[in-house]
Design goal:
Elements (H helix, E strand, L loop, with lengths): L6 H4 L10 H10 L11 H5 L5 E4 L14 E12 L10 E7 L2 E7 L4 H7 L5 E7 L1 E3 L2 E5 L3 E4 L9 E4 L8 H13 L10 H7 L4 H9 L12 H27 L10 H9 L6 H15 L5 E6 L5 H14 L3 E5 L3 H17 L4 E4 L5 H13 L4 E4 L13 E6 L7 H8 L6 E6 L5 H8 L3 E5 L9 E7 L3 H13 L3 E5 L7 H19 L3 E4 L5 H13 L4 E4 L12 E6 L7 H8 L9 E7 L5 H12 L3 H13 L19 H21 L6 H12 L3 H6 L4
Parallel strand pairs: 4-7, 10-15, 10-16, 11-13, 11-14, 12-13, 14-15, 17-22, 18-20, 18-21, 19-20, 21-22
Antiparallel strand pairs: 1-9, 2-3, 2-5, 3-4, 5-8, 6-7
Helix pairs in contact: 7-8, 8-15, 8-22, 9-11, 10-11, 15-22, 20-21
Bound molecules: adenosine-5'-diphosphate and magnesium ion.
Enzyme class: isomerase
Keywords: ATP-binding, DNA damage, DNA recombination, DNA repair, DNA-binding, Helicase, Hydrolase, Isomerase, Nucleotide-binding
EC number: 5.6.2.4
Length: 702
């Protein structure tokens, strides 16, 4: 149960004065949390941080105030000059002076009574706003703030500016956040005093106060101590919860898997190539993990085409040598079949039996596979989600490999592990996740990287071409086909509609068929499994030479002699996806090219994405660029928080804190694995504050 100490922060925002359902709905658009089904709370408001400030500390006096500057002036009111009756286009003017000169405060469509009350003649007031000089006369149009001299303290000299959404004024948001700040309870500090001191962190409540009530513009900088403190807290909450999950998984400890290397050798001998240095290295790391009694949780990260599959196969061979079974899960049916096609002949040469299980295996095939898994006569199974089904029982599953992991959720990853007695886990991803994100997403998961590609690969030439000039391409493709090459033609990504996606692919298929005849094939997600297989087979074997496809071929598909990929409406794809798609070519010894067809005019971000694609093939660089471009807010709308999965922490500013937080989390749990100590109790508060309550549930009672 959540400690009641936190109640004020978990109260709905509608408990704040002036926040009805309408304002609440607007506020929910700007808070950084991914609210999902829940409503915004006071704590969400507090994590809505200002992205800049208006500095009102400049008090130069009227004569010294520059055109356009934001200034604060202390004035004596001299007279009011309402507009002539019936002429609303003339503004209401209030004349005032200080020691240096006279100024006109100007109001359009003013309420005379209100202004008279706010600025009685003869009174001293403080006003703040933008200075304007016209023909040597100073004025200020609609000052941002007007306060009597006695109430000048209420005027924010350094005014935080929050992300806004249409219909929600800065004034309203500031007032509401001001109330939220007053509700911050006093909390025991969960940070190690030494860490806090070293980093110069204020306390959590002070950090929030400083960000919402800054005394100097630098106070709200993401690089300043207040924001860094919150970022650290958020990282620490994340690292702690990941470590708790991991500890929970590891508690079900695995068993050592070793073997005599005979099966592995047989497979190596059957390979038409030898492994790259980095494949060897990754395999050695994996085998070392397998040999440990602790469970393996390892991520194998390698750019598209770097050859992850064979590493997985050799690891599975080791599992079988140790007397167990191994499963390889693929995110799509096409990919599962492709994996089986690669693996089965090699496995067979080594005397192993491999089988496939997807949603399509029915009837006798399916029951014989199920029986083989249950009695252990099948050593390696390749499959899709179908592997999670209840009827699937293994005799002894010791290694689960998950391919293209980003397609699977955490639940699914865990579901496969339930099929064995704490099987070792190898997760493969082609998305080159930057190191920092690996840490945030997987915590302490060990990582092996394939850093080199198999020898003999040539760079892929990437060009961009406006859609209107598609004709040019047709000529080029005829030549390529005449020369015996193969072409992927990817149809546009159409948001949210399978229907339209398929139509556009079918239309493109028709026009290309008209142009090139029977050598054109088609594959899309709505086709029956057998039709998809047939399309892939025909393309692989060269009966078709152009394969029109939707993004079903995005991940993993391996037709090494395909040399051209055309991507229509490339501007609609994200960088990661473009990189994945491009990775379908350049997998053999021949030179390949990628043609990005785009529709003019391109937006700024789309332009940048396409030029990144032209400039580099390095998946690592591309994913960092992707992160930056997303960080610039395109995908996250008005949300300020640039780093996916985080509310206040921003990788581009706070990456250094991430590793400190990881080490801190490790240390904490090694001393107090169930967070029972006084500090442990305080850390539980932290987990709640950052929405990591699921981790609290993993703690043993107490
Ligand atoms: P990915 O890492 O994208 O999953 P794959 O495992 O599909 O890559 O491998 C891509 C291609 O490279 C396949 O055709 C595979 O047979 C080939 N390959 C893998 N390792 C090597 C190697 N060491 N030398 C040459 N070719 C290799
Ligand atoms: Mg792959």
């Amino acid at each position: 149960m959540r400690p009641s100490l936190l109640d004020p922060l978990f109260a709905p925002i509608t408990s704040l004065e002036g926040v009805g359902p309408k304002v609440a709905a607007l506020i929910e658009k700007v808070v950084p949390a991914d609210l999902g089904e829940r409503r915004a709370r006071v704590g969400d408001l507090l994590f809505t941080l200002p992205h800049q400030v208006i500095d009102r500390r400049n008090r130069p006096g009227i004569a010294g105030a520059a055109q356009g500057a934001i200034v604060t002036l202390e004035l004596r009111i001299d007279r009011h000059q309402p507009p002539p009756r019936g002429n609303r286009s003339v503004p209401y003017r209030v004349f005032a002076h200080d020691d240096t000169g006279e100024i006109a405060l100007t109001f359009f469509h003013a309420h005379a009574a209100y202004l008279e009350k706010q600025m009685p003649v003869g009174e001293h007031v403080v006003v703040s706003g933008r200075m304007e000089w016209f023909n040597g006369r100073p004025s200020m149009v609609h000052p941002d703030h007007i306060a009597p001299l006695s109430g000048a303290d209420s005027l924010p000299l350094v005014e935080p500016v929050y992300p806004l959404t249409a219909g929600l004024s800065g004034k309203v948001l500031r007032r509401v956040i001001g109330q939220a700040v007053e509700r911050i309870p006093s909390l025991p500090d969960w940070l190690d005093a030494a860490v806090a001191r070293k980093q110069g962190f204020p306390s959590f409540p002070d950090a929030l106060r400083k960000l919402h009530d800054p005394q100097a513009p630098l106070d709200v900088s993401p690089e300043a101590s207040a924001w860094r403190r919150l970022a650290y807290d958020e990282f620490l909450a994340g690292q702690l919860s990941l470590a708790l999950v991991r500890a929970n998984v590891k508690r079900l400890s695995g068993r050592p898997l070793t073997g005599d290397g005979k099966i592995e050798d047989a497979i190596r001998k059957a390979l038409p190539y030898s492994l790259t240095g980095s494949q060897e290295f990754a395999l050695a790391e994996i085998n070392a993990d397998l040999a440990e009694p602790e469970r393996m949780l390892r991520l194998l990260q390698g750019d598209v085409g770097s050859g992850k599959t064979v590493v997985a196969l050799l690891a599975m061979a080791r599992a079988v040598e140790a007397g167990g079974q191994a499963a390889l899960m693929a995110p799509t049916e096409i990919l599962a079949r492709q994996h089986l096609a690669t693996i089965a002949p090699l496995a067979e040469r080594a005397g192993l039996k491999a089988a496939i299980l997807t949603g399509r295996e029915k009837g006798r095939d399916r029951s014989s596979t199920l029986a083989g898994l249950a009695d252990g006569s099948i050593d390696i199974v390749v499959g899709t989600h179908a592997l999670f089904q209840e009827q699937v029982v293994f005799r002894d599953l010791v290694l689960a490999v998950v391919d293209e992991q980003h397609r699977f959720g955490v639940h699914q990853r865990l579901a496969i592990t339930a099929k064995g007695d704490a099987p070792d886990m190898l997760v493969m991803t082609a998305t080159p996740i930057p190191r920092t994100l690996v840490l945030t997403a997987f915590g302490d998961m060990d990582v092996s990287r394939l850093t080199e590609k198999p020898a003999g690969r040539q760079p892929i030439k990437t060009v961009t071409l406006p859609l209107e000039r598609m004709d040019q391409l047709v000529g080029r493709i005829s030549e390529a086909i005449a020369d015996g090459q193969k072409v992927y033609w990817i149809c546009p990504l159409v948001e949210d509609s399978d229907e339209i996606k398929v139509t556009s692919a079918e239309e493109r298929f028709a026009t290309l068929k008209h142009e090139f005849g029977d050598v054109v094939g088609l594959v899309h997600g709505r086709m029956k499994g057998a039709e998809k297989d047939e399309a892939m087979r025909a393309f692989k074997e060269g009966e078709t030479r152009i394969l029109v496809a939707t993004t079903v071929i995005e991940v993993g598909v391996d037709v090494p002699d395909a040399t051209i990929i055309v991507i229509e409406h490339a501007e609609r794809f994200g960088l990661a996806q473009l990189h994945q798609l491009r990775g379908r070519v350049g997998r053999g010894a021949k030179a390949s090219s990628c043609v990005l067809l785009y529709k003019d005019p391109l937006g700024e971000t789309a332009k940048r994405r396409l030029s990144v694609m032209r400039e580099t093939e390095d998946g690592f660089v591309i994913s960092e660029e992707d992160l930056k471009l997303r960080g610039e807010g395109e995908l996250l709308g008005t949300r300020q928080s640039g780093t996916p999965g985080f509310q206040v922490a921003r990788i581009e500013f706070h990456a250094d804190l991430l590793e400190v937080a990881r080490d801190d989390a490790r240390l904490i749990l090694s001393r107090d694995p169930d967070l029972k100590s006084e500090r442990g109790q305080a850390l539980r508060l932290l987990l709640y504050l950052f929405g990591r309550d699921e981790a609290v549930r993993l703690l043993r009672a107490g």
